[in-house]
Design goal:
Two copies of one chain form a homodimer. Chain A is of the alpha/beta class and 277 residues long. Chain A has helices at 17-24, 33-39, 46-54, 63-79, 97-105, 118-121, 150-159, 177-182, 195-209, 238-241, 261-270, 272-275, and strands at 2-6, 28-32, 59-61, 82-86, 110-113, 136-138, 164-168, 170-171, 191-192, 219-224, 232-237, 251-255. The longest helix of chain A is centred in the first third of the chain and has 17 residues, at 63-79. The radius of gyration of chain A is 20 Å and the shape is globular. Chains A, B: Its EC number is 2.1.1.314.
């Protein structure tokens, strides 16, 4: 049996009782590093805290390991119980569909244990979940690569009066250009896009496309460390949010569409003006 | 302090460790009946199982009670810890924004503990969450009221190649027409829309609008009891799904947009054809 278990947002105590029971029934426990490093990794003792609370040794499986050794992990699960822990929900922002497809192809029983992910926890900012359009991702620009595929999607959402959740780029364990050239494995330090970088990129793309999908006065909500005890939520114009220090990752951004009165009331509590007195 | 705690989908064991800790620290615990009856209520001993596991007496707060006595609940929370338990995520399909707004208005500290909701757990059907457009609700038609506000939304999503999550109507503790006339409180028996009813209504509205947003051959995924141990997921055309017995509530329906290969592979596992051999 392969269990794919969502850990939710926050720390090791955000697992569900059902998830904990499953982990404790397993012979082998993996935790996906790609995203988990982001939250648990912020506390340097994240892994050992998990191992202590769950009562199991946990193997950190980074993206490379999962891609290269998925078959071995699945083989283990054919004659024992294996848990694969995932930050958020197993089918949240990052997908584990591929692992499930592989497992099902060899007739392996898969059980998924759900948890919160950014896709629903974002509701805390007060904008109704059913009023969101398509979600977009904002990738880090480089000197030569400034992709804008998010732009027409945001434009459409705005024309329809819908909110847009922008997921901001994460670069963890990216091979360095030098290492690619030399055939050795060296990695760039991890990078997490901050809200002000995302807004600057958004404004640059608006300027080059010029369709008035949004501008510096467009109302947004910036959210840092969603679901953590020290999460920070600030509502204001793009221009206003450029100056807010949101602190440690992860950051995400919502571009606000048309709002109902109860949405307005919630945004008021997070407004940069009410926060700054 | 007011805690608003998501219970997730399934049963009492889907609470998170953080949520359980919070419940146990509270002097008074309410559970919202409007949605909770749907899942925990299916097992007649749902409430007592929760009380036993959480180690607290729990007051069932139906919609009427919350609307009429919100101020009293909030007053209790000003000088003690009060938990308000909610099926799914506090800001999932059903919103608790209003309670939070009222609490914040009187300066009450509110802590939200997230969990899975239909809005992210739907990812299990294999369609990527970021490829969904606006979510729609399908209300029960009556002889004289056949609202179709979902139709243009589905139409737009389909034109953009996006998937559409359809939330199906729930009628719990609706005053009966007779009771409204006599001024006494009597209630209709609860009703939960089934997938075949939703599809019949969708096809009726397509026929009267005639814009070819979808038809009987359009691929859909029907999901019953999402997140429960006996959940049922079947992919097929609207016409095919009309004949599937999905069993007990809750049901929901996804109208499939354009698909990527890995989405196709997952849908194949749930296909009505592969299930029926």
């Amino acid at each position: 049996m392969l269990y794919i278990i969502g850990l939710g947002l926050g720390d090791e105590r955000d697992i569900t009782l059902r998830g904990l029971e499953a982990v404790r029934s397993c012979d082998k426990v993996y935790v996906e590093a790609y995203t988990s490093l982001l939250s648990f990794g912020l506390a340097s003792d994240g892994l050992s805290r998990m191992e202590k609370l769950y009562g199991k040794d946990i193997v950190v499986a980074d993206r490379e390991m999962v891609e290269e050794h998925a078959d071995a992990i699945l083989r283990e699960a054919t004659d024992s119980n294996v848990a694969f822990l995932v930050v958020g929900d197993p089918f949240g922002a990052t997908t584990h569909t591929d692992l499930v497809v592989r497992a099902k192809k060899i007739g392996l029983e898969v059980r998924v244990i759900h948890n919160a992910s950014v896709m629903n926890a974002i509701g805390i900012c007060g904008l109704q979940l059913y009023r969101y359009g398509e979600t977009v991702s904002i990738p880090f620009f480089t000197d030569t690569w400034r992709p804008d595929s998010f732009y027409p999607k945001i434009h459409r959402n705005r024309q329809l009066g819908l909110h847009t959740l922008c997921l901001l780029d994460i670069r963890v364990k990216e091979p360095s250009l030098e290492s690619l050239c030399r055939g050795k494995k060296c990695y760039e330090p991890p990078r997490y896009m901050q809200i002000h970088t995302a807004i600057n990129q958004l404004l640059e793309i608006e300027e080059s496309n010029g369709k008035s999908a949004y501008d510096a006065e467009t109302k947004c909500v910036g959210i840092a460390r969603l679901g953590y005890e020290d999460q920070k939520i600030v509502a204001g114009s793009m221009k206003d949010l450029l100056d807010v220090d949101f602190g440690l990752p992860l950051h995400c951004l919502v571009i606000v569409g048309e709002t109902h009165p109860v949405e307005e009331e919630m945004l008021d509590f997070y407004s940069i003006k009410s926060i700054n007195g």
